[in-house]
Amino acid sequence: MKAQTVQKGFTLIELMVVVAIIGILAAIAVPQYQTYTKKAKFSEVVGATAPFKLGVELCAVDQGVSSAAEFSTACSAAGTNDIPPAVTAASGYVASVAVASGGVIEATAVSTSGMSGETYILTPTLGATGASNLLSWTKGGTCVAASIC
Question: 12-146 sits in which CATH class?
Fold first, then answer.
């Protein structure tokens, strides 16, 4: 009688299929992970605009702004009328934050650590007089195209 042989282990084809599946998953996961880490880093830039956003809103309320012209003159300079002074020295992932004419806030990321100097721009729009939400904000900048803000 002939003895039966028992197969042990995996065949070469089975191992090649497993390696191919792992390669495909890695090709999809690595770019997604890089985008995720860039978004996490850029969240610091977005967070750095919060005091400036609050300052512009307080300026509009304190100055009794009722038109776009009044808003542009009263709330367009950092360091005045409740708006914090501009940030010009890089800290963490934030390179700078400034307030321009019309209360437009522009924050710029650093150009190191996987960041490319992306910008985050908040543009305020004056609401109707007496409305509960005086300002509404429109998001813009190069971060929108990069899908990180």
Answer: alpha beta
Q: Considering only CA atoms, which of 95, 98, 121, 99 is closest in space to residue 108?
A: 95
Q: What is the pLDDT averaged over residues 10-29?
A: 91
User: Cβ(96)–Cβ(109) under 8 Å?
Assistant: no
From 70, 43, 79, select the one nearest 134 (Cα to Cα): 70
Predicted structure pTM score: 0.75
Smallest CA-to-CA distance from 56 within 81, 93, 34, 35 is with 81
Mind giving me the DSSP string for 30-51? Answer: HHHHHHHHHHHHHHHHHHHTHH
pLDDT digits (tens, 9 = 90+) for 116-131: 899 999 998 887 665 5
Q: What is the distance between the alpha carbons of residues 149 and 137, in angstroms, rounded to a whole number?
A: 14
